[in-house]
Amino acid sequence: MHLCAQMKSEANCRTMNIRRPLTVILLVTASVVYGQVPRGNSDNKQGDRHVNFGVGASGWGIPLYGQYEQMLYRELSLGGEISLRFSNETIHAVEYKHNMVALGAISNYYFDHLIELPAFWDLYGGASLGFIFVNTSASVGSSSAYSGKRDSGLYLGLHFGSRYYFSNQWAINAELEFATTLGGLKLGATYRF
Fold first, then answer.
1. Are the CB atoms for 92 and 145 separated by under 8 Å?
2. The pTM is what?
3. Across the strands, what pairs with 125?
């Protein structure tokens, strides 16, 4: 028995008949567009340098970040990062404004060769260690009465990320970080030279 004959209404049958061709058209269009997207064909090598920059989202405000990495080997990099974050918090009807600067060291291991990814993809995991400087101001009274959790101190983090190179030098990147204080999502661009 035909599927439309099993439908309770003719309108449901027409909707199903329209969805199938639309799904096929969307899949074919996506395949063609993906095939036309430019890709880089140069892989990471010892001595390459990456400059990453972008924005993110975290429980500690919206970060603006910059990173520098030096490829020590084809799979291993070492570098530094800076992150600026701004957030507001209200405790007992007092609004606190936090301006934060994080400075740290990063190291990444690239899994590209291990899992045989194409040259235009990077997949990496790494660790970061640094210090966050927090400046807090209060809308009423002194910021010394602040009893929240945002304070200056050391941070330690693990992160996983990926890059898609649309040329030999430029890529878009996404990184998910799990950290003692600064965890969150980062989206941005990478310049490799």
1. no
2. 0.74
3. 109, 160
Closest-CA residue to 172 (of 39, 70, 71): 39
Contact (Cβ atoms closer than 8 angstroms) between residue 163 and residue 188: no
**Alpha-helical runs (H) found in the chain:** 3-6, 10-36
| CA pair distance 120, 110, nearest whole angstrom | 13
Tokens 């430019």, residue located: 38
Residue-wise pLDDT for 65-111, tens only, equals 999 999 999 999 999 999 999 888 888 888 888 899 999 999 999 99
Structure tokens at 59: 């429980």
The amino acid present at 134, given as its one-letter code, is V
CB-CB contact of 166 with 39 (8 Å): yes
Give 165's Cβ-side CA count (13 Å radius): 22
3-state DSSP assignment of residue 174: strand
124, HSE (Cβ side, Cα atoms, 13 Å): 25
CA distance 169 to 153: 35
